[in-house]
Design a protein that fits this description.
Structural class: alpha/beta
Number of domains: 1
Shape: globular
Radius of gyration: 20 Å
Number of strands: 9
Helix content: 40-55%
Mean pLDDT: 95
Low-confidence stretches: none
Largest sheet: 7 strands, parallel
CATH topology: Rossmann fold
CATH class: Alpha Beta
Bound molecules: nicotinamide-adenine-dinucleotide
Order of helices and strands: HEHEHEHEHEHEEEHEHH
Distance between the termini: 57 Å
Strand content: 5-15%
CATH superfamily: NAD(P)-binding Rossmann-like Domain
CATH architecture: 3-Layer(aba) Sandwich
């Protein structure tokens, strides 16, 4: 019985502190001197995340399959007074991830912030998706997260200190037509982050924080011509997305939807599927499909 009272007490404290946090945002933590490994650092959100984190004093380990673009990011960081190291890695390949991790440990030191950002997408109908495409999507968008977490979490656990950050997507909350493998991979990222957060709480490792950001569309060029009726799924600028993502990271916030999708998530659980179908058909969030698609 006392456990039930304890639970109610904890829930009340949780509600009250969440309400207070709405009014008085908690102060931002310092990441000066942390070592942040950022995947997909050569372009889009990854490059901007590197720039913002380096400005805040973090040492950056930039990782991308595109050597030239990644090196460009490293040069930008160095020219602005940052400390940066670049590694060319194909995140589809487990052996390259293991090699990266041991090189980073030898050449840079312990990674204290893991920024799982890299992602790929094949907008097409499910029958046009090849096994290779599905496998690539899952390898880059999800399995690389697991492998990198497995490489760097032990050290974070030893020190009860660290931050694991992931970019998922709105597609990780609501499945999108013609983005089935992508949506499934992003749902998996949200599941991974939620599960890991609960695991670390059970292990009383409160010094390791997790942040999972779910943006709507972002104008990085990753998808072509993103659109939705009345702009109901907005196209965000990369700068806005990164500012909000870094703000969430500095305040140790967990699940962040950009823009806020709390209302849509509650509605989704309350209304019948047919109502949800009508809403989806009306909003019609979509991107240009690749050539072989069968719409
Ligand atoms: N752009 C959007 O509309 C949008 C919306 C929601 C979420 N996201 C997510 O945000 C993240 C960043 O997206 P972005 O828009 O900056 O993409 P982007 O295409 O601009 O950049 C992705 C980077 O990842 C790298 N990359 C791709 N495959 C790789 C591999 N196998 N190994 C290593 N690096 C690889 C690319 O070279 C590139 O530098 C992704 O996870 C994406 O799913 C994007």
């Amino acid at each position: 019985m006392s456990n039930v009272f304890e639970l109610f007490w904890q829930m009340m404290v949780g509600f009250v502190s969440a309400f207070i946090r709405l009014i008085w945002k908690p102060s931002a933590k310092s990441i000066h001197g942390e070592t942040a490994l950022v995947t997909g650092a050569g372009h889009g959100l990854g490059r901007l995340l590197c720039i913002r984190l380096a400005k805040l004093g973090a040492k950056i380990v930039a990782v991308d399959v595109n050597e030239e673009a990644n090196q460009e990011t490293v040069e930008i960081l160095k020219q602005n007074g940052g400390i940066a190291f670049g590694y060319t890695v194909d995140l589809r390949k487990a052996e390259e991830i293991h090699r990266l991790a041991s090189k980073v440990r030898d050449e840079v030191g312990d990674v204290t912030m893991l920024i799982n950002n890299a992602g790929i997408i094949y907008p097409t109908d499910i029958l046009s998706l090849t096994e290779e495409m599905i496998s690539n999507t899952f390898r880059v968008n999800v399995i690389s997260h697991f492998l990198l977490i497995k490489e760097f979490l032990s050290n974070m656990k030893r020190k009860n200190h660290g931050h694991i950050f992931a970019i998922a997507s709105y597609a990780g909350l609501i499945g999108n037509a013609f983005l089935t493998d992508y949506s499934a991979s992003k749902h998996a990222v949200v599941g991974l982050m939620e599960g890991l957060r609960n695991e670390l709480k059970r292990q009383k490792l409160n010094g390791i924080n997790l942040t999972c950001v779910c943006p709507s569309f972002v104008s990085t060029g990753m998808v072509q011509n993103p659109r939705a009726r009345l702009g109901l799924v907005p196209v965000l600028t990369p700068e806005y997305t990164v500012n909000k993502s870094v703000e969430a990271l500095l305040r140790n916030e967990f699940l962040v939807t950009l823009p806020s999708a709390t209302f849509q998530r509650v509605v989704r659980d309350l209304v019948p599927d047919s109502v949800m179908d009508a809403l989806q058909a009306y909003v019609r969030a979509e991107v240009d499909l690749i050539d072989n698609a069968d719409e």
